[in-house]
Amino acid sequence: MITPNNIVDAKLGGASKEEIQAMQQQLGKEVKSKAIVVNREMDYDSFEDMIVTALEGGSNYWYSLDLNNSIGFIKKYADDQRPMTIRIADALYNNEDSSVVVLDTEDEEEMLGTLTYQSVRKTLENFPKDHQWALDNVLNGDYDANDADVVFQVLVMGDVVYG
Question: Which of 37, 151, 20 lies closest to 89, judged by CA?
Answer without folding.
Answer: 151
